[in-house]
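Entry type: protein chain
Record version: 2
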Amino acid sequence: DEILNNNEDITYYDRSRDIYDDCVEYICSEFEESSLYLPAKVNSVLEYGRPTKGAALALVARVRLIHASDLFNGGRSARTYFGSWTRKTDGKHYIQQTYDPKRWAVAAAAAKRVMELQQDGLPMYRLHTVEADEKTRPLPINVNDPDFHKPFPEGAAGIDPFHSYLDMFNGETVMNINPEFIWARSSSQVTNYTKHSFPVANGGWNGMCVTQKVVDAYEMVDGRTINTASDEYPYDETGFTNERKELYREYYLNTNVYNMYVNREARFYASVGFSEGFWLMGSTSDNTQKNLTVTYYNDSPNGKSGAPNPDDHPITGYVLRKYVNPIDAWAGTAARRIDKPFPIIRYAEILLSYAEALNQIEGESFTVEVDGQSQTFTRDISEIKKAINQVRYRAGLPGMQDADLADATAVMNRIKKERMVEFLYENRRYFDVRRWGDYEASESEPIKGMNTAGTRDTYYQRVVPTSYRITNRVVNRKMIFLPIPKAEMLRLPSFDQNPGW
């Protein structure tokens, strides 16, 4: 760290870049120091969004996990992406090319410290839950997890998984008392952006899409995948529902819903809007603008040819509903929207990061100093299971068992999928696929959705949309780090450009 004068000749500012590892250590040291002076909690609504001690330490945990990941820790992708990126002043690699397994223990320690924060003898953070009521969907009956029917957090009983998840994002839970939000902020942009999800029929733009890949990643209600669905809760890509059900309080599964969307986990219904979906829009008193069944077929009012603007249709046939409150409406008398928070970092991320870090510690143990105390970390299956299963139980899903945790690669793949659905539209996936080294493989997959160019008879089939928004997409490894502006590079001859630019 160096403090520079601000009135010197341009040559005074010319200097070489620091390597990535040094930047990580500096960032973490700054967060560590700030945590000593930040308040434990911000309880006032007016001050909500200001960082706390927990926020600083949680960001240390996030940075440490990134630092341990394949792209930045001498793994295959570190060598592939950054093998030739060296500092011209001394030839040193900007990104370490030798794997350091201890970094995973450091990441685990950083996450565990957040998990152990307390206030008044109680945990500072925990997963957000809403108690079950008479309208809560019953837990599945065919689950082998012996702990599944225990009260949360030891099992999935006693909570409503749909509202435990959704109410964090749609403004239903008062944000400054949500125990899961380690750092979040209230923003009119979140509320206003829901217009991109809303149907044209209610003043929206139908444009904030979800891909078929994400839809397929959501599990069945009993924790099976769509490819291993059970007889009790089958998955079917033929036929439609023949009755209307209130799956959860204020969430209805309509008649004529495609069977692909039946028997899915709670987070699916909380997050994804699909054709024949029911939208309450409860704030408006205009009966023509509320309680709408929305379809995205080509010839429907919200479809490709039915919308007034040809761009106002979901090109994948799915929209994001995660931030939509049943009261929200964009058209009609007295239409209004509930204020909503955006989670910068929440406790579920800490749990899954802890599980990931422990899972990657293979073959040996590592001792790490945390706040003057020595802690030893190994690939502890019981700890991994406890962390992952809290997130799964909150979603109403069975937990992972010891047999599921035997293979570290298989567990890592489960964690990747869990993070994809749990943090949908929370600004995590972009960075996750890069740190894992999955960027090119993942982003090169064709984006798929339903056939929005078809009528109802041909709509329900997986296709690659032809929209220019998809066909013009660029996937290039140099996009891992975006370029430093040329004007700045000309001012600093000793400063190296990002690789590929």
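Comment: The longest strand covers residues 181-186.
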